[in-house]
Every structure is written in C-alpha cells, then in structure tokens.
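Is it possible to get an amino acid sequence alongside its tokenized fold?
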Amino acid sequence: MRILFDSKQPQFKTPFGTLLPEENCTLHIHIPATVRSQKVECLISLFDGSKPFSVPLTLQTQEGPYEIFRGSFSLPEPGLYHYYFRIHTPDNSFRLFKYGNDTNMEDGDLWQVSCIPTDFTVPKWAQGAVIYQIFPDRFCKSGDCDLRGKLTPYTLHENWDEEVQWQPTPDGQVLNNDFFGGNFRGITEKLDYIVSLGTTILYLNPISKSFSSHRYDTADYKTPDPMLGTMEEFSQLCREAHKRGIRVILDGVYSHTGSDSLYFDKSRTFGGNGAYCTKESPYYTWYQFDAWPDKYHSWWGFDTLPTVNKLDPSFIDYIITGENSVIAHWLKAGCDGFRLDVADELPDEFLSLLKKHLRKLRPDALLMGEVWEDASDKISYGIRRRYFVDGQLDSVMNYPFRNAILAYLRGQDDGRGLADTVMTIAENYPPQVLLCNMNLLGTHDSPRILTALVDDFDGSREEQAHRHLSPQQHSTAVERLLIASLIQYTLPGAPSLYYADEAGMEGYKDPFNRRTYPWGRENKTLLEHFKLLGKLKNQLEALRLGDIHFFHAGDGRLGFTRQYAGQTLRICVNRSDASWEIPVGKLLLGRNLQSVSTDAVTLSSGGMCILEET
C-alpha cells in the first residue's frame, strides 16, 4: 500500500489552491499502519531556498489499514512556497515527495502552494468573458485609408483572397510588408457579427504605426498605423464596441521597438533624432549598444527589433508614468486594457509599476500577459517570476490547456492528462485569475487549430504554402474542433477565438495562420456551433464563474461538472470506441447522441453534451 496524499482533493488539503497571508490551511495524510509512523511533519519553505519550517501532523484516527494524520499551517506573506513530508518510524525516517519513491528528495517533485496578496483583484467583466482576437490587417477592409504616412516599402494586395507573401528577398530577409488593408472601419462594420459569437472582449494585435503587417516592430507607440485609420476611427470602434457590451484590449509591445522607428530611426525616416543616429537622442538610453551605432542588442537576434532597457527612467516615463504615457494615451482613446507581448521579458519591477499605474488610471482595466507555460512557477532568464504572488497580471494566455486539449483529441492522451493539466492550473493559479485566463486554441503565433488537430507538418515555407488538408483530414479536423471548442468554452476561464477559426480557416505557422477572413465561404457547421457556445457561456453563470470537478477522466472519456449558485452543469465527451450512458438532465447542447430518453443520454463515439442538472 502507498501513502496517500493528493493536494487537489479536499480530503487531503483544504482550502483548495492558493492561500492568502495568515489563512489557515489543513493537511491530512493517509499512512498505512504497517509503516508504524511515530512522527509526521510537513516541511514548508519559499522557493528561494530559504530554511523550511516544520508543521507537525498528529494522528487523528484510523480508517481500515490507514492511519490519518492531520496538521495546519498558515503562510506569513505572499510568495511561492513548496513542501514535502518527513515520516519518522522506529527504525528510520524518510521523505515523501510528489510522484517520488518516498526515499530520495531528488527522485520526486515538491508540492507547491502560492500565497497571494489579500488585495489582488481582477476586473469582474473579464471573468468568464468570451474573447475574439483579430489580426487587424486580415479581418475586414472598408473603404480606403490615407497612406501618406505609411512606412515604405510595402505591397498592398489588390485581391482580398490572394495568398500572403512568404518568399524571402534575394538576401534572405522575410519582410512581412505585404498588406491587405484590413482597418478600424472594417472591424467596426463587423461588430454585430462579432457580437453574434458571444464576444465580450475584443483583443487586437498591434495597431501602432509600424513597418510590418504584424506590427510588433513599433515605429510610433502613440500613432495608429495609417493603413488602419485614424485615432478618431479607433475611438469610434471602441465606442461602438462599448455600446454592444464589448471591451477592447490592445497588444502592448514593450520589450523592443522597430529599428525603423521614431525612437531608433535606423533608416532616418523620422528626421534622424533616434538612438541609432545620435547619442544626444532623448531615446539613446533606451537601447544597449556594444559598439554604437551598428552593434546593439535585439530581440532574438533580429536586427529590425532592437530591445529596450525596460527600467530606463525615460522609457518608464514614456510608457507608464508620464502624464501622457503610452498606456494613458490609449486608455483615453477608448481601450480597456492590454495584453503584454512576451511578458517573461519584462522585469518584475516594470510589471508591478505598470499594473499600479494602469489601475490608477482606470480601476477596472485588464492586464494580460503572454506566458506559454504554467505562469505560477515560471522561470525566465534565471529568475522565478512573481506574476501572481505580487498580483502583477490579471490573466495569462493559457497554452497549457491548449496543449492538453490537442493531445487528447489527437489520441496522445486518454483524458487523464487533460484532467490533470486542468486541475494543476486550477490549483496553482489564484481563483480570480483562473476565471479570466485566456483559454485559446488558435493564435497568431501557432498553426490554425483546424490544421493542428490533424497535421503537425513542419516543412519549408514553400511546402506549407501549398499544403492543404485532404477531404478526409478536413472532415476529421472539423469533428475534432467541435469537441475541442466545447471543452475550451466549458472549462474555467475566458475562451479566446482567433478570427476565422469559427469559419474553418486552415493554415500552418506564420504567415499562413494570418490569412484573410474568408467572408462568404464560412463553414456553417462550425460557425453556428461557436455562436451557440458563446451564447451558453454568456447565459450560464456556472460556465463563467463555477468551480470544476472531474467525475471521469480516462479511456477516452471526459466528464466534469461546473457548479455555481445552485446551478450544476455536466460536460461529457466520449472519444472511446464504445457508447457512454450519462444520467439525464436538461440537454443544452448535444452532438453524436446515440439516444436520449427520460433517464439517460447515450453518447456515441465522438459524442459530446452539456447537461444541466434539474
């Protein structure tokens, strides 16, 4: 018999998940009586390697062959803590670790628990929201824009349905300077369509003046790219979105700028007052030169993206603290928050200051971060990050959920791995963060979800440009996406829909995941499915705010509940070869149902349902 302790289960640890300072936490550990335990203790310390403190666990009772030991503790201050158990017997003592072999610290993992600030809050409107992500150049074009201020050279496609440019220049550069003309007016005109998807948050990839179509090479933080339109047209977009109950968040790109920018001005486009042009530039201290002007630090070695010194006082004043800072500028224009590009490259001091001033400017503004891993214990450049224990971020991009859903639907996991991933994130993240986590399937940085569900081809750009799903692959991918999205929309958090995924867009990684929206050629099955999911997410409080419990995970089957304020929903997915009978409730959504009776719903292989208990 094994020693029993599962920090995710209330019979072993209460409360579940993160703690507040001085909040009491109770542990129970079940040890076989044959171990002859004389003393049991839990050793807890900060992840910084500080000396652990001991929590004694005393024998409470015996249930069958197990002796149950109980102990309580509290944590003095916010931080990321870890713990393990030491068990003393008449003959020796040994340490117990998560997934370990009970005898050697190096053979197991430490349990972790985060202590978060008492005043850590997130915007109510972001909890259980539905996010629609738009790559602005490729969503919708309306009319023409004044291009006199557009950085050159660029190519403007004549046909909306043309292929994106992927061929490098003769010297091997990929310029990303082809445009289709998607703009603010186009987005504004499509707001009723966006609302029909249940959208409550509109997330726009960068909109500032830039050279490239992706616009992560910022040229002027405070000016919209002329191809997108004017500041007034952006403000009009925000006003119309707000009328429809939609908040607008922008991409904040503060780890680097473009080399062709007001601040660096390598091409002398902006009058020769940038850091590359003169050491007297007001922006000179933003950058780090090894040998001015041609040897400078850049993002991942791309010389078109010089990195900035994030803690330079002038940069902080310009972006955060100045009276007309970048964040103040866009909030005044109508946006409701920011998603931070490469948040792991922004120092803790920068993030804390940004969050503080953002909330000072607007108490309910949202701050999300791009983090690809479990953000609770993320280590970046040798530093363990404090996103949650310092209350720096309200939400992060939830790639762990995406990866787990893909593994499950591609047959690499029978469901147990997905359930474990979900409950691990639920345990490690503050509950308020969990509810507004950006639960994504597709993004501008990953292959289209329809493609990713059936094909992980990683060939050359030329091969990717000409490779498409076969009819059989496409059919399989659609069926899998119907299931993937059901899971995405019913797990805790804010599901994020990448534009045109609801239309059945396919494509491999950048730039083929950034094609134009196929207006008039949408996959109607997917589109109606996403509309229904968005409607249910908005209508059902249990989907937006409820806790989660898995009652089945394995053999290809997933079953979990979401509960809130007396409402209980059961979500079931069957990827096994056999049918699965589920006790009946009110059927809110069902697909591939073998039968529906007064007593049960039976799912065929590939079936799924949402039931409300009555």
Confidence is low (pLDDT under 50) at residues 101-106. The longest helix spans residues 471-490. Residues 256-309 form a domain with the Oligo-1,6-glucosidase; domain 2 fold (CATH 3.90.400). The CA atoms of residues 222 and 326 lie 6 Å apart.
